[in-house]
Amino acid sequence: MRTNNVLIIGGGVIGTAIARALSRYELSITLVEKEVEVGFGASKANSGIIHPGFHDQPGTLKAKLGLSGNVMYDKLCKELDVPLKRIGSLLVALKEEELGILEKLKVQGELNGVPGLKIVKGEALFQMEPNLTKKVKAALYAPGLAVVSPYELTIALAENAQQNGVKVILDAEVKNISSVNGALKRVETKHGFILTDYLINAAGLFADEIASMVEARNFTLLLRKGEEYILDKKTADLVKHVIFPISQKETKGVLIIPTVDGNLMIGPTAKRIEKKSDLSTSREDLQVILNRVRKLVPQISSENIIASFAGIRAGSEKGDFIITPSKKVKGFINVVGIDSPGLTAAPAIAQMVVDILSQEGLKLRKKRDYQPSRKKWIRFRELPSREKGRLVKKDKRYGNIICRCETVSEMEVIEAIKRGARTLDGVKFRTRAGMGRCQGGFCAPRIVQILARELGIKVEEVTKRGRKSNIVLTKK
Amino acid sequence: MRIQKVDVAVVGGGPAGLAAAIAASSGGAEKVTILDRNKTLGGILPQCIHNGFGLHRFKEDLTGPEYAQRFIDRVEELKIEVKLETMVLNIRPEKKILAINAKEGIFEIEAGSVVLAMGCRERSRGALSIPGTRPSGILTAGVAQQWINLEGYLPGKRIVILGSGDIGLIMARRLTLEGAEVKAVVEIMPYPGGLTRNVVQCLYDFDIPLFLEHTISFIHGKDRVEAVTIARVNEEKEFIPGTEKFIDCDTLLLSVGLIPENELSSSAGVRLDPFTGGPVVDERRQTSLEGIFACGNVVQVYDLVDHVSLEGDIAGKNAALYALGKLKQPKRLIKLIPGRNIHSLVPQLISGEDMTTIFVRVKTPEKSVKLKMGQGIKEVKKPLVNPNQTLTSTLSLKELVLLNALDEVEVSIIKEGRE
Amino acid sequence: MDKTREIICIICPLSCQIKIRVKNKKIVSLESNGCRRGKEYAEQEFYNPQRVLTTTIKVKNSDSSPLLPVRTDKPIPKEKLRECMQYLANIEVETPIEIGQIIASNILKTAVNVIATRRLKS
Q: Is A475 in the C-facing interface, judged by CB distances under 8 Å?
């Protein structure tokens, strides 16, 4: 059996970012993911915000890696061909007594090194965001905030890592981990055993269980569920920046987020939970979200909601990221407790893990043929008419529009499958097919049939997201 | 890019579009083109294999495919051009349509007039914000119908249906006959959404329980739907604690309303009516943009396909006249305003020059009422009005004379005996 | 002993509840709001309820449409719906098919034919 230099457990944005960062070196690397596709855990339910960095206390890993992660995003997204929009944010104060908090956060941000922070008020503020409540007193503007699609990013990181030789094994829940000769680790999944010198725990929500397989665990995860609601694209013009409220709590509060894809998203809530499988949404949280965002932008209406989802933040009890090599088991590194600003920090976390591995004795030799750029994605809907016409001439399947709400062609669906999609959600996350206002009403049956055809499986075997999530149950 | 010139371009080849194209062609338009996204003409009709279509128009009890075929045959006879699997990307107010298909690539149609006949779509789970998890096995009744009647697959075996509109009821029977177990139909209103005929023949015939004033309070299941909790609702449609019932199932079908599909209309700049969700039209079915007409479910969601076809006839005829330069624009338009117990009405504007049929949908069921237009213009007795049935009322020339003195007229349902 | 039963009339949108009293499997009295059509419907529903059956049949040789929609050309007794479905589940047809073409004649000896409701070209 070949021994890996590094095995990464977890195919979320953190695991895939680490895989990609390591893939530039002459190493044998494997990533295992328990779901059938990467990004299907917490990452798919992330808000998609690259935070500017004024929220976090100076001196924390969150502050440090959040800030350095933010500035890495332009290059990263360019290389990976993942859309990124630097739309900036406004943290709004609705009461006089909150103005002090704006100042405090501005100072905290400046201490962290956040550039361009500015307090705006009056006409200038309404020019930036005309639909804000007239009650707003002032806002802290942070130009550095960006939005990205968290699942597209995760998929892209994994794809580029694979281009550079990383082996990704899906549907591979880790059942057991044992040490061999005190250092070499043997990781068991249903696909068999994998041997590795270095083992990285990026298992997110399940990181505590993985750690306990290796050693006496020295951290506790703090699980908080967040619900989010997506609004129809026709409301997109309502808000231009991410709007933060003043939040006294541990989270950043309920936000209004113009997503990179042109929807508005409202949320998330934060509810302490115990059960890792609890991804349900509730009427109470929806009401809380609506009440809060309407205080900021009164025109937001529940009538425009087209989808909802919930995700679980797996933070650490101490409130900061835990990125440390084990003192007892050589070569075991925890990258856990990564809640907000985890997405922002992801590229910086990956770099930090590379540095730790190097300190722990892993020899890093740069690959000569490292390819930082991912193969381009054709986003048909965004192309000018002439370019669309040219593509259809090249391949007729571009002329066959499968998803009507988001204008996704058959060729893009096929390309998504060729590049790794195995499920309806996998196609959706790569192409946006089914993410529009009809939520897959028209296109789901067609995509299911294309999946069956391209993968050579039966229609009944096609799933929404793996396991028993079949779309149809029996053939007549 | 290729530019094609036509007299009348019809966007959508469902019952409204088919009727419009036929009427336009019969009305003298030389080149009529239908653009449709599907592989076949007929819109939703090919999957509506049940009977009950055409009782008004053909005085026959037809199934969906049979009803559609009568129009498709006529389209072929009239040599109307049909572009299938063609997606319209946008429509501009100057009646230019940008479309794409695999055969021709991207192309522009310059039309003398345009008929919008895009129909409607089903309200999805997301739009309802039903609490719970997001497993597979949640689909709209129309999508389930497509799987069963066109593709040949059963979406599930143990079914709960939310909403008792006609599609939901029809699917309850269809699934039962195909061997699935329909465990409940759940309706938030105190009365069924569909026709009594369907309640009797689709539910009672098979002992399927109907829970009125109930809704789904939670969807359970990690990968696939495992169960739903239903609860009784109060007048504000809030769940009443303590009334929950847990129902084991693998599939949740949604039959909770239809939304006119007007993204193309609004991007063209057509004015929409907040009550219907469709374009504001006059009695010729002309929208706020001259030369752009609209008909069928894109204008207002109808209960009967016969009404949809009738709308198509009107729009098609006038679109042809417009394209030929023969449509006289009305001197003025009188506004019809929805009054008491009126959900929506079509047309919203009338010229007062020609006899006109008004299609009205009410908000709540009422017995022994009158449909009233303005003060002393028209009152018609109605033994029963029901939200699931479109009321029609035709204004005679005599009534139009009375109407002509006014700028706007309220249409309402009043209790009999009341002034 | 007399039994009472309610039949919901579906003839017109008023949906009247027709009360019938039954003795020895026969209607002894019927309240139908004085409506003749309602009375006829209730009697029909009581003695011999009938339904039109619509369903689909497998198509052997079609790429475009795996199913053919069909219906009974007349209503059949309600209690035979399921039996009829079972019978039709075992039938397969080949294209071309015309609307109205008989797919199964005199099904279950009901003197009713099952006919195609869609044209399928070969």
A: no
Q: Which secondary-structure segment (H or E) carries B359? A: strand B356-362
Cβ distance of B384 and C71 shorter than 8 Å: no
Whether A51 sits among the annotated catalytic residues: the reply is yes
User: What CATH architecture does domain A1-83+148-220+317-376 belong to?
Assistant: 3-Layer(bba) Sandwich (3.50)
Q: CB contact, 8 Å: C82 with chain B?
A: yes
Which SS3 state, helix, strand or coil, does residue B17 take? helix
Model confidence pLDDT, tens digit, residues B330-348: 989 999 999 999 999 999 9
Q: How far is B299 from chain A (nearest CA, A)?
A: 18
Partners of C67 on chain A (C-beta within 8 Å) are 476
Residue B418's pLDDT is what?
Answer: 53
Q: Which of C52, C49, C68, C38 is nearest to B55 (CA)?
A: C52
Alpha carbon of A173: minimum distance to chain B alpha carbons (Å) = 16
Are B129 and A281 in contact (CB < 8 Å)?
Answer: yes
User: Considering only CB atoms, which chain C residues are within 8 Å of B46?
Assistant: 69, 118
Domain spans in chain A, listed from the N-terminal domain onward: 1-83+148-220+317-376, 84-147+222-313, 380-461
Question: What is the CATH superfamily name and number for domain A380-461?
Answer: BFD-like [2Fe-2S]-binding domain (1.10.10.1100)
- Same-domain status, B131 and B115: no
Partner-chain contact B69 C66, CB within 8 Å: no
The residue of chain A nearest to residue C89, with distances taken between CA atoms, is A476
- ipTM of this predicted structure: 0.95
| Each residue's pLDDT tens digit, C56-73 | 999 998 777 899 999 999
Domain total of chain B = 3
According to DSSP, residue B206 is labeled G
**DSSP structural state of residue B330:** P
User: A1 pLDDT exceeds 90?
Assistant: no
Contact by Cβ (8 Å): B393, B409: no
